[in-house]
Design brief:
Elements lengths: L4 E4 L4 E5 L8 E4 L5 E2 L2 E2 L3 E8 L4 H6 L12 H17 L3 E5 L7 H12 L3 E4 L13 H19 L5 E2 L8 H9 L4 E2 L6 H16 L21 E2 L18 E2 L14 H6 L2 H9 L6 E7 L24 H17 L2 E4 L1 H8 L4
Parallel strand pairs: 6-7, 6-13, 6-14, 7-8, 9-10, 10-12
Antiparallel strand pairs: 1-2, 2-3, 4-5, 11-12
């Protein structure tokens, strides 16, 4: 490795740096599990990602008016800093899924540049976070995905290789566009019955109260999708044919527990304290990849300018200190269970040949 400069990143990862595109390629991890020459050999991986949906997205979900004041930009102004501190203290890398239009604000773009310099991955959460992405024309979908990647690259100097759709809602057309654009991986499929039921009920309840939610429900067929990394076939909730191994976009599904497929995401991990968080984590141990997806709001609370969301967004009533304690409990349990922490791009590289 003498021809390359290298440094340790979060989680003890030794990362190559300094190529023309500013990208970092996974090389090795110093952990109880074995990783050789950039290849994961019999290792359990955990990727922690964060969707940086700014607070106006939540007012849209609940059919509320525009949020004014500093709370409107609390994700980039407050949460990103807390997430970086959390990751540094826990010794792990994050994958930050950015809504590209938010990066038109100079301070938001700088926050991501700083995060990337610390070893975190930057990924694409679309141009404008349009909840109705799957209802747009193919051309509009391409603009949201390709345009998002272009703007993230322009704002940060880093071109993202992955994608996550707003609201975990995706279609075959979106997968076709991802393939056309050469996206390395997607992480949008959420095969979780409990989440699907709760989301459907919440949208209906909002309508009964005379408001309109921007949120969109996926097809129930998504509940039959694989829970482990797979190459998306057609329809996307099916695995690509074995005869076409390597074909299809690599999908890294949002994490559910083993058996009951309970949601193992930021909301469920941070809502009820460390004991519940650890219980959910134990129900995921044994999976080859634990894909823990958070949102920026998962490290915020009402005191961060979100008082107006208290009646609608229950998790803002939990202090951010309590949320961080729950997350730390999860990281500790998974690390003690033999998991190595990697970025989403590194996880995709590990599963690309076998999915």
């Amino acid at each position: 490795m003498s021809a390359r400069r290298a440094r340790k990143g979060p989680g003890g990862a030794l990362r190559e740096t300094g190529n023309a595109l500013g990208r970092r390629r996974f090389f090795c991890i110093l952990s109880p599990t074995l990783i050789i020459c950039g290849k994961h050999v019999g290792v359990r991986l955990c990727a922690v990602s964060v969707d940086l949906d700014e607070i106006p997205n939540y007012t849209q979900i609940h059919g509320l008016g525009t949020l004014e004041g500093p709370g409107a930009t609390a994700v980039y102004d407050v949460a990103v800093g807390r997430l970086r501190t959390m990751a540094r203290d826990a010794g792990l890398p994050l994958t930050l899924f950015a809504v590209a239009s938010d990066l038109r604000r100079a301070s938001a773009a700088q926050a991501l540049r700083d995060a990337y310099a610390e070893g975190h991955e930057l990924s694409n959460h679309s141009l404008d976070h349009r909840y109705e992405l799957t209802r747009l024309t193919r051309h509009e979908i391409a603009q949201q995905i390709g345009g998002g990647a272009d703007l993230i690259a322009a704002a940060t100097g880093v071109r993202p290789t992955g994608f996550r759709a707003p609201g975990y809602t995706i279609t075959d057309t979106v997968f076709d566009v991802l393939a056309d654009l050469g996206v390395a991986y997607d992480s949008s499929v959420f095969p979780c019955p409990a989440y699907f039921a709760a989301k459907t009920a919440a949208i209906g309840l909002i309508a009964l109260r005379g408001r309109t939610s921007r949120s969109v429900v996926d097809t129930p067929a998504v509940l039959t999708a694989p829970t482990r990394p797979y190459r998306a076939g057609s329809p996307y909730w099916n695995r690509a044919s074995a005869k076409r191994r390597g074909a299809g976009v690599l999908e890294l599904p949002i994490q559910v527990t083993r058996g009951a497929r309970l949601p193992f995401i930021g909301t469920t991990v941070t809502m009820w304290g460390p004991a519940v968080a650890r219980s959910l984590a134990r129900m995921c141990v044994g999976e080859p990849l634990v894909n823990l997806e958070l949102h920026g709001i998962d490290v915020l609370d009402a005191s961060d300018g979100l008082e107006a969301l208290r009646p609608y967004q229950r998790d803002v009533n939990v202090t951010h200190e309590s949320k961080l304690e729950s997350l730390h409990a999860v990281y500790t349990l998974l690390r003690n269970s033999g998991y190595a922490f990697v970025t989403m791009a590194e996880a995709a590289e590990a599963f690309a040949r076998t999915a």
